Amino acid sequence: MPNKDQEVLVKVEGLSKKFCKDLKTSLWYGVQDLLSNLKGNRAERELREKEFWAVKDISFELRRGECLGLIGHNGAGKSTLLKILNGLLNPDAGKVTIKGRVGALIELGAGFNPILTGRENIYNNGAILGFSRKEINEKLDEIIDFAEIREFIDMPVQNYSSGMKVRLGFAVAAQMEPDVLIIDEVLAVGDMGFKLKCFKTIDEILPRTAIVFVSHSMPQVSRLCNQVILMEQGKSSFQGNDIARAIDLYYNRFLNNSSQEIFSDGTFRLEKVELMGATGYEGKVPVLHWNDNLNLFFKFKVKNVKEVPRFVISIFDKEQRPIAVFEKNDKNAGLEIKDGNLEFFVNHPNLQLTKGLYSLHVLLLKMNSSGPILRMNDVLSFQIIHKEDVWPPLLLKTNYQNYSIKNLTQ
Ligand SMILES: Nc1ncnc2c1ncn2[C@@H]1O[C@H](COP(=O)(O)OP(=O)(O)OP(=O)(O)O)[C@@H](O)[C@H]1O
């Protein structure tokens, strides 16, 4: 819930920005807009041929201590919105009001002059943020130490690796403690150690700062943000503080209902796979409740082979990480190929996967030699429902018992 006691640091009202898909036309529109501005007319609000809205009608308020996550697929308009907030782009409509100093980490190396050294760039950026030379001198060591690039601080930034640029950028943006901090996906470039350090720093400064955070990493969004805007073709398709709901919607957008054959020697073909006893459907995706039994039915068409293969059936989560694998069938599992068909069930009692979307990948190996026969990804997707939204893949059924005197004497 928004903390109404805190002051609003960022207010965005009906923000829109359009771009043109074609450079020549864009230049021509630019000239037209310039002339019409000189005559005192506002820039065109309607789309002209080849134009599109990169950001359309976005509004939000952000208070000190709040972190807004901007999520959405590539090209949804997130970076464009950040650039407008940071004053790098002018909107075609709407208004941005920001109170206080803005620190931004937008494009890799943006805000740095490549021919100046790291040290000179710290002074430049500090000055842009509104700090005096004396204030920057006081922070200089902290910034260099945080970025862990003391050895290279007098080297031109153009010779820095991408990780070094991000280290310096984040160190300046965060150590100067701006009132508003804008962070684009760039943090993804840093190594694990630096990322952890950045998140620790964000946690530390958040109570005094308003943060706008763009990321494709949903664990990071859920860890940091207390409001989210899910962007789709420039518009907000979801906005609010139900982060779990926003993340579900984001993942559903990437839902791929078609299975993918990676390898086949032509002997086995998957004809059917079904989740038995689903409690419902979300779109076409079968739904189970946490702790339900998982019952899968498989049917393969078999050509010129009599030997039952070994099955490796894995569960992948929405980030495409393998999180579980079923025990392989052994020779004596009793499976049989009959009339060119191999049909069987796979059962697992009390599936304790956490809320969310999962998919099955299947690998068939020769029983004796383990040579590959068939490999298929995403043969089935299913959704687990639970009231609790937790990030680890397993929520284990647990009993808590009071530690009583009776237990002591037992
Ligand atoms: N200067 C520009 N001129 C024309 N089109 C642009 C310009 N900058 C961005 N666009 C277009 O605007 C749309 C939104 O781009 P933007 O970079 O904001 O997306 P994004 O959500 O940040 O994507 P990503 O996740 O890939 O970083 C895209 O279609 C992009 O091609």
UniProtKB/TrEMBL annotation:
This is ABC transporter. InterPro entries: AAA+_ATPase, ABC_transporter-like_ATP-bd, ABC_transporter-like_CS, ABC_transpr_TagH-like, Bact_Polysacc_Export_ATP-bd, P-loop_NTPase. Belongs to the ABC transporter superfamily. Pfam families: ABC_tran. It comes from the Bacteria. SMART domains: AAA. PROSITE patterns: ABC_TRANSPORTER_1 (PS00211), ABC_TRANSPORTER_2 (PS50893). GO terms for molecular function: ABC-type transporter activity; ATP binding; ATP hydrolysis activity. Keywords: ATP-binding, Nucleotide-binding, Transport. Coiled coil: none annotated. Transmembrane segments: none annotated. The keyword Mitochondrion does not apply. Residues 38-258 form the ABC transporter domain. One of its GO terms (cellular component) is membrane.
